[in-house]
Amino acid sequence: MTARASWQRCDDCHQELDELDPRPRCPACGGLLAIVHATSVTREQLAASTSPSGVWRYGDLVLPTAKGMAVSYPEGNTPLMRRQAIGDWCGVDALQLKHEGLNPTGSFKDRGMTVGITQAKRIGARAVACASTGNTAASLAAYAAHAGIPALCLVPEGQVTTAKLSQTLACGARTLVVDGDFDDCLRLMQQASSELGVYLLNSINPFRLEGQKTIVFEMLEQLNWHAPDWIVLPAGNLGNTAAFGKAIDEAMAHGLIARRPRIAAVQAEHASPFAAAFTREFDRLVPVHADTIATAIKIGAPASYSRGVRAIRSTNGVVITVTDAEILAAKGAIDRTGVGCEPASAASVAGVRKLCHAGTIGSAESVVAVLTGHILKDSSILQQIHGEHSIAPELANLPVRIPADVQAIAALLDSIEEGRIERS
Ligand SMILES: *Cc1c(COP(=O)(O)O)cnc(C)c1O
Ligand SMILES: [Zn+2]
Predict the structure, then answer these.
(1) Are 375 and 409 within one domain?
(2) Which ligand neighbours the alpha carbon of 131 most closely?
(3) Are residues 344 and 222 in the same domain?
(4) pLDDT, one tens digit for every residue, the chain (424 residues)
(5) Domain carrying residue 276
(6) What is the atom index within ligand 1 of the atom nearest the CA of 234?
(7) Atom 8 of ligand 1 has which residue's CA nearest to it?
């Protein structure tokens, strides 16, 4: 018998399952599963990878046995960007933005989905399924189409942006709109998947988290393996927070980095059961009814709570909340530089500013804020900002109506230049 490269293990009772076992949770106790790898890697080995994918180039840390059969776009390879204006707005000198909205379907979900769909194909799944606030559905739909596997998505009625819903439909996924919120959808989908034998690809799926770890690996490699002081991200269902914690643990264990960055997870004020638990030293999760404009983190009962707790503890991290107004202001600052992101993503930058003002993040510390989704993922919020009766008048940039006359353009240009002179 050859030695195993990877297997699944229950977080709670430590029961081990084969790598190809399709069950979404521990059959013994219902706990969440994690993937364990026997492989080890060095920086040199990673640097020698020729994979075009920003996920599979870290394949030895993701799913070594599947490297040769990956369902890949490719994905990842997202830039680390520096924009002085955003750093200044936050009060941090060395702020960098890891823009995961530049993945193939417009969010970081693609990094997990390439691994999840590859796994679905390996186990011969008859169909794949998820409950989603929009981005998971869009990603699942695209990767399932790529793999030729039928896809089923459950989304909460009226709480998924038009762009995300139409993206999912366009890729051919059967989409069920549920009279309820995301937490209802997830509950329903877990029940359906165990009864109907479809492969569940929500973020409780441990293979998705393996792919999402590469946000951290790729960022660290872009920084020449000099870990930043802080990594800041928006937090909803806590799959990404958990993946970041696991990635940092593994980067330390393999000697890729010499010290741990601290994780700061940022929740929307009225969707913040994780932040509330943090203030009580994580005594327990108290689910809430979630409400925020940032639909991608509008989650009241995060499924990966226990993993999220571990990630915050092992990195000496923090969990904070920001208001919808703070999210909008951050989005305004990000959008105006041309970088752009969807509202949930702006929570990370709003969080950096808040932590800096509170003195938790020092202005000289190095910070990477993760932008999780693309600006066009939520075009209706853009219309609400940059339209009549703006929800954020201080950010609004309204279209100017002119007659079809070049003089009107000339007059407008003059007024812009005069405005510049007045401002300087
Ligand atoms: C999924 C998602 C999140 C939240 O990630 P979790 O893993 O659920 O915490 C944040 N922002 C965007 C754009 C997302 O799509
Ligand atoms: Zn168990």
Answers:
(1) no
(2) 1
(3) yes
(4) 457 899 999 999 999 999 999 998 999 999 999 999 998 899 999 999 999 999 999 999 999 999 999 999 999 999 999 999 999 999 999 999 999 999 999 999 999 999 999 999 999 999 999 999 999 999 999 999 999 999 999 999 988 999 999 999 999 999 999 999 888 888 888 888 878 879 999 889 999 999 999 999 999 999 999 999 999 999 999 999 999 999 999 999 999 999 999 999 999 999 999 999 999 999 999 999 999 999 999 999 999 999 999 999 999 999 999 999 999 999 999 999 999 999 999 999 999 999 999 999 999 999 999 999 999 999 999 999 999 999 999 999 999 899 999 999 999 999 888 876 544 3
(5) 80-106+208-380
(6) 10
(7) 237
Ligand 1 atom at shortest distance from the alpha carbon of 135: 15
Whether residue 413 is found in the same domain as residue 321:
no
Indicate whether 267 and 327 sit together in one domain. Answer: yes
Q: Which ligand is located closest to the Cα atom of residue 28?
A: 2
Pair (404, 347) in one structural domain: no
Asked if 362 and 424 sit in the same domain, the reply is no
The residue whose CA is least distant from atom 2 of ligand 1 is 296
How many angstroms separate the Cα of 176 from the Cα of each of 11, 138, 155, 160, 168?
31, 13, 6, 12, 11
Atom of ligand 1 nearest to the CA of 101: 13
Q: Which ligand is nearest to the CA of 305?
A: 1
What CA–CA distance (Å, rounded) separates 391 from 387?
9
Are 305 and 256 found together in one domain? Answer: yes
Q: Is residue 50 part of a domain?
A: no
Our count of domains for the chain comes to 2
Asked if 73 and 121 touch (Cβ cutoff 8 Å), the reply is: no
Domain co-membership, 411 together with 288:
no
Residue among 372, 374, 377 to mutate when testing ligand 1 (max atoms within 8 A of CB): 372
Residue 227 lies in a domain: yes
Within-domain flag for 113: no
Residue 389: left if φ>0, alpha if ψ -120 to 50, beta else—which one?
Answer: left
CATH at 376: 3.40.50.1100
Residue 275 lies in a domain: yes
Interior/surface letters 298-309, b for 16+ CB within 10 angstroms, e for the rest: bbbbbbbbbbbb
Tokens matching residue 397: 């940039």
Report the separation in Å between the CA atom of 415 and the middle of ligand 1, taken as the mean of its atom positions: 41
- Give the span between the Cα atoms of 297 and 291, in whole angstroms: 9
Q: What is the DSSP string of 307-371?
A: HHHHHHHHTT-EEEEE-HHHHHHHHHHHHHTT----HHHHHHHHHHHHHHHTTSS-TTSEEEEEE
Which residues sit with their C-beta closer than 6 Å to ligand 1? Answer: 107, 109, 135, 203, 234-241, 296-297, 342, 344-345, 372-373
| pTM: predicted TM-score of the whole model, two decimal places | 0.96
